[in-house]
Each structure stands twice: as structure tokens, then as C-alpha cells.
Amino acid sequence: MSIFYFIIFLIIVVAFFLLIKKLYRNEASVNKRKRKREKRVENYINEAFKIENLQAIKETPQHITLVYPKETLNIKHNNVSQVQDENEEKIDTHFELPTDIQREEVYDYALQHTHFYINHERYDRLKEQNNN
Fold it and tell me: Where does the sequence pass through the membrane (predicted)?
């Protein structure tokens, strides 16, 4: 009779283990897909919106408009910083996608969490160019 209880116990332990393993595997695969999507969007933003490709800058009270050859971005004032040295120019994208975000919203969400560091001289030149 004790062998029977032992076998029942082993079956329960194995079933519990398989259930936990399946749940973890599903969650891990979802997180992996999410991280890949984050990385693709981040790489796209860093490649498409290089500071060197910036054509014009327009300032409004609500936002700053950055004009690129293929697209125009409306960025909040706190997401654009002016730096002194040209070597410090960069685009910094840091974000983690929330679990309930739709695929169509990923790009806009990433742009909201992107910070543009633009050289002071370049910023003034592109802003003046736009005013003329």
C-alpha cells in the first residue's frame, strides 16, 4: 500500500512540475518577443533619426518639431537637450514596453521615451534656417 501512495505522490509532483514549466515557458516566450520588438524599434529610431540627417527645427510652445528627410517628429521640449560638443550628439532611447500595449502603439511609445542631444550650434543654425 505504501508503494501505491509513493507512486501517487510522484505523479502529483511530476504533474505540478510540468504545469509550472509550461507556464514559465509561455511567459518567457512572450517576454522574449516583447524584448525583440523593443530592440527592433530602438534600432529603427537610432538609424532613421540620426542627428546628422536633421534638416530643420521648428519651435512651438507645445513641442519642438524635428524635420527629417522622410518624416517630421513632434517632440516635447524636455526630450531635446542642447550639448556643447559635437561628439556628445546622440539619440538616447530607453523604454520598457508595458504588457497591455498594442503593436500599433509601440513606435509612438518609443518616441515618447527618446531623448535627442543636439549640438548648440547645429540647433541654432537649423532653427535660423527654418525662420528664413
Answer: 6-24
